[in-house]
Amino acid sequence: MQSFKQHTPNTQAIKAALAKTSRIDVFALLKECHPIVLGNIPVFVGSLLLVLLGMSVLGMIVLSFFEITDPFAIEQSLQLKLEILFSFTLAPLFTGLLMMGVRGANKKPLKSLDIMAYFPRIFVLGLTSVFLSMWISIGMLLLVVPGIYLLISTMFVIPLIAEKRMKPLAAVYLSIRVVHNYFLQMALFNLLFLGGLLLGVATFGILFIYILPMYYILKGKIYIALFGLSDKDDIDTLEERKDDATFAA
């Protein structure tokens, strides 16, 4: 426990969250996010299309490599391997989406290609994503309630690694501690998103154009309220490298 504490960023927001003095009003934050979402829908649609493209390409490679002719008749052992492969490989893209939500919540400019900024850290992000998904799956298999608790309580692990460069176990420890203090609010956030998914399905996917950007930006708002922000993230660094390269050219 002591080693985890040593790697916990010492920010006012985190101190307040651990002391349970932060105020998290999900509905108020939802209202704040609405105009931000409307202004960033095209950017998020472009990013989500890139994610779908990446998933499709990876899927075709996997089907070809493993000579799978019927995707619905895959052996359970191979299915587990494929889930691990997809979770590891796609982790940087989903991290990019999460961090676009944080940047959007902070009213920073966004571009669809921002989701590519976290590929240099694919190893740590991929391993953490695999670890979390397996941990949550075990919780679901043993008893549903522990699985749901783990799913919600670890919801900020990846942003903490991506934005604050925390070590994975320290990020897990901090996310669980903070979310435990605000579990009802975080459960409400996830219930709202679940309801949004059902609405999206009911409208044949049309509402996903609004719901998915709202999910990431609202989660970003909550993240900022609980953990604060560092001065610079990987997307900023990527932009600086592009500017340097342009200047050098």
Q: CA-to-CA gap between the ends?
A: 49 Å
User: What is the beta-strand fraction?
Assistant: under 5%
How large is the count of helical segments?
11
Percent of residues in helical segments? over 70%
How many domain modules?
1
Largest beta-sheet details:
none
Backbone structural class: mainly alpha
Give the SSE order as H and E letters.
HHHHHHHHHHH
Which term fits the overall shape? globular
Radius of gyration: 19 Å
| Model regions low in confidence, pLDDT < 50 over at least 5 residues | none
Estimate the mean pLDDT confidence.
88
Q: What's the total number of strands?
A: 0
Detailed description of the structure:
- This protein is mostly helical and 249 residues long.
- It has one domain.
- It is built from eleven helices and no strands.
- The chain has helices at 2-6, 12-18, 26-65, 76-105, 122-142, 144-153, 157-164, 168-181, 183-202, 208-227, 234-248.
- Helix 3 runs antiparallel to helix 4 (76-105), helix 3 packs across helix 10 and helix 5 packs antiparallel against helix 6.
- The longest helix is centred in the first third of the chain and has 40 residues, at 26-65.
- It starts with a helix and ends with a helix.
- The relative contact order is 0.16.
- The mean pLDDT is 88.
Structural topology:
Layout lengths: L1 H5 L5 H7 L7 H40 L10 H30 L16 H21 L1 H10 L3 H8 L3 H14 L1 H20 L5 H20 L6 H15 L1
Helix pairs in contact: 2-10, 3-4, 3-10, 4-5, 4-10, 5-6, 7-8, 9-10
